[in-house]
Write a structure and sequence with these properties.
Distance between the termini: 85 Å
Strand order of the largest sheet: 5-6-4-3-7-10-9-11
CATH topology of the largest domain: Spore Coat Polysaccharide Biosynthesis Protein SpsA, Chain A
CATH superfamily of the largest domain: Spore Coat Polysaccharide Biosynthesis Protein SpsA, Chain A
Structural class: alpha/beta
CATH architecture of the largest domain: Alpha-Beta Complex
Number of domains: 2
Length: 717
């Protein structure tokens, strides 16, 4: 029998993907052959052929980036039991939860996330949970205070019966007989927990309905009186402190609402994360940090142990900086902003080459730009050297914590530029991860079974497109900045293929232009009776058909392999078209306006929803709308193609030049696009939030008529 000490904490297992690679290469060569054909016959065709060539060149480049990005998939198999056998004392972990708006992000969602974190299988005296409330809401604070009372019952219950799902809302929505056994004692305690959670839920909902906690803003709530979301002082509350330092107690729970002033930029979530980093450095200074969004709860109670398998392995100390989802086979996955473990010393800008040799000169150089707090500099020096010396009482650090949470603290420091979460983009997560990779660190993908975290996906059209716009905007901001991955490869330690992977994701917004142009080509050709597709007698037509069939078959097979339905595949195919030509387009325009100095980009908080499965099933397939201009491009595209099909059906086209006009290929493309935008077709006749607002329809009709008119003028000219 193998010695447990000699066994690895994790294994890096490459995934076989021979068939996938074959499909990838085949599609790539078909795209190249199409481009070559287009190029050779450019002189024999008009503007539509040239535009198709340019668009397809962009698609081919994107496919090349896609192939490079997913060429080496790997799977990390972790062994949490070996960690417990090998490590006599597990390291501390500071857990961060961020929320910004008590209306869009209801407190009950944040509460469930916090409760799931407090109940993870890890020594509780090694855990601390910090909640950042950028909305400075007394409702959020009240909800956390009440949740801490429930946690004293919930955490022991979960650990006593080895409950697997530790977010109460999700646990109590399932049959209790499927969890923890069915003894009389368990049933009695289950009913007690259910009653206690229902009371907690009712208290929070009542407070939300009244827009105030069920008490005056006095006493513990006095600091919340007369505060405004964007203009208020710092508020820090130690809701619960594990003073007894017991491993089976309740982890520390701290509420933080950083100072905001109108004259100082607050840098959205990145600014909140940096305040959490500084305050936690003063209070607990754990060597590892976990951050989650307020709507992402722990789904696997052993998640911290799984993470430690990767972070505590002797090889990973000089390699692995963060854990998260994404690209795993190159330099590691992108940092996705939530469900991610970090090394504190890496967030403090330490490079892998210096991890074992942090001398006084290096530490002084790094800490020289940490700000004026001597206490923070002292704690950071300990963290860089792999030591921890947290105060025995959290409240002893309150005064220093208020200083580092001030809105002007970061002036003259490296926070947001060289230290901590990076500023300058609405996707601070990818930006921060890129800078970590630039220093030579690797990241690792941790995929335990069941999944470590689950979250709330956007439940409606407005939320989805707003989120997609924010991502496209932020990613493009990085691409057009000095943090561009090309510079990170030339002047830093970012690997070339990792650079290609970052280029693939950062260029989302740019893809909207060729996609929009390609979507307009069939309509233009049908209206003007021209063509952009090869004719039936040309071999290149079969290349195009092969690409279309192979790509759709390939993507469908990927969905089926992961046990997803054909409907899920088709919905995502449609949403891909909708997002690219609407949300990503507006993201591109936002960045252009920023580069021209006309306007600044804005971080938009999206609505979080924790609806039951029954509600989700009832709403499945029903797209929702509002008066946002984000729906204008997609509605216009739909109306253009509906008009196009009417023109073709009624034979309203002009005579074809040279005897070659639009054919079945262009009509098929137009029909396919109508199917992709089917939710918008239903929205034209829908009512309420399921219908496209009349103002949007009128604007789209005007734009569609302008497009048709311009097409007609080209034929007349």
């Amino acid at each position: 029998m193998a010695n447990p000490i000699s066994l690895p904490l994790y294994e890096k297992i490459p995934r076989k993907n021979t068939l996938q690679r074959a499909f990838d290469i085949l599609i790539f060569f078909l795209l190249l052959s199409l481009l070559i054909y287009r190029f050779l016959f450019l002189n024999n065709h008009g503007l539509t052929w040239l535009l198709a060539f340019l668009c397809e060149s962009c698609f081919t480049f994107t496919w090349f980036l896609t192939i490079s990005t997913k060429w080496n998939p790997v799977f990390n198999k972790t062994y949490p039991d070996r960690v417990l056998q090998r490590v006599p004392e597990l390291p501390s972990v500071d857990m961060f939860v961020t929320t910004a708006d008590a209306v869009l992000e209801p407190p009950i969602i944040t509460v469930n996330t916090v409760l799931s974190l407090l109940a993870v299988d890890y020594p509780t005296h090694k855990l601390a949970c910090y909640v950042s409330d950028d909305g400075c809401s007394p409702l959020t604070y009240y909800s956390l205070v009440e949740a801490s009372k429930f946690a004293k019952l919930w955490v022991p219950f979960c650990k006593k019966y080895n409950i697997h799902v530790r977010a109460p809302f999700r646990y109590f929505s399932n049959n209790p007989l499927t969890f923890g056994g069915s003894s009389m004692e368990f049933q009695q305690e289950w009913n007690r927990m259910k009653d206690e959670y229902d009371r907690l839920d009712c208290k929070i909902e009542d407070a939300v309905q009244n827009s105030l906690p069920p008490c005056d803003l006095t006493g513990d709530f006095l600091e919340f009186s007369n505060v405004k979301r964007k203009n208020h002082p710092t508020i820090i509350k130690v809701i619960w402190e594990n003073k007894t330092d017991l491993p089976d107690g309740l982890p520390h729970l701290v509420y933080i609402s950083r100072e905001k002033r109108l004259q100082h930029p607050h840098h959205y979530k990145a600014g909140a994360m940096n305040v959490l980093t500084r305050v936690s450095g003063l209070m607990t200074n754990a060597p590892y940090m976990l951050n989650v969004d307020c709507d992402m709860f722990v789904n696997n109670p052993k998640v911290a142990l799984h993470a430690m398998c990767l972070l505590l392995d002797p090889k990973s100390e000089k390699e692995i900086a963060i854990l998260g989802h994404g690209i795993a086979g190159i330099q590691g996955p992108f940092y996705g902003g939530t469900g991610c473990f970090h090394r504190r010393k890496v967030i403090y800008s330490l490079s892998p080459d210096n991890v074992d040799s942090v001398n006084e000169k290096l530490a002084e150089d790094i800490l020289s730009k940490f700000g004026s707090s001597k206490e923070l500099i002292k704690s950071a020096a300990y963290a860089l050297k792999g030591k921890t010396d947290p105060p025995t009482n959290l409240r002893n650090s309150i005064q220093a914590a208020y200083l580092v949470s001030g809105s002007s603290y970061e002036y003259g420091t490296s926070w947001g530029t060289k230290v901590g979460w990076r500023y300058g983009s609405t996707t601070e997560d990818v930006h921060t991860g890129l800078m970590i990779h630039k220093r030579g660190w690797r990241s690792a993908l941790c995929t335990p079974e069941p999944p470590a975290f689950l979250g709330c996906a956007p439940s409606g059209g407005p939320t989805t497109v707003t989120q997609q716009k924010r991502w496209a905007t932020g990613l493009l901001e990085i691409l057009f900045s000095k943090s561009c991955p090309i510079f990170a490869t030339i002047f830093g330690e970012l690997q070339f293929r990792q650079c290609l992977a970052y280029t693939w994701v950062l260029s989302w917004g740019l893809r909207s232009i060729p996609e929009l142009c390609y979507a307009a080509l069939p309509a233009y050709c049908i209206i003007t009776n021209t063509y952009f597709l090869p004719k039936v007698q040309e071999p290149a037509l079969y290349v195009l058909v092969s690409i279309f069939v192979l790509y759709n078959f390939y993507t469908l097979s990927e969905y089926l392999q992961t046990r997803q339905s054909v409907r899920a595949w088709w919905n995502n195919q449609r949403m891909s078209r909708i997002n690219t030509t609407s949300a990503w387009l507006f993201g591109f325009l936002s960045v252009i306006l920023k580069l021209l100095g006309i306007s600044e980009t804005v971080f938009e908080v999206t609505q979080k929803d924790q609806s039951s499965d029954d509600v989700n099933n009832a709403e499945a397939g029903r797209f929702t709308f509002n008066e946002s201009p984000l729906f204008l491009p997609a509605t216009t595209i739909l109306l253009v193609h509906l008009t196009t099909l009417v023109v073709s059906l009624l034979k309203l086209q002009p005579p074809a030049q040279d005897g070659y006009g639009s054919g079945l290929g262009e009509i098929f493309c137009s029909v396919y696009l109508v199917l992709c935008y089917w939710p918008f077709l239903k929205g034209l006749f829908g009512k309420g939030r399921h219908g496209i607002p009349l103002s949007t329809i009128c604007k789209s009709v005007a734009l569609a008529l302008i497009f048709v008119h311009l097409c007609r003028r080209t034929t007349m000219g």
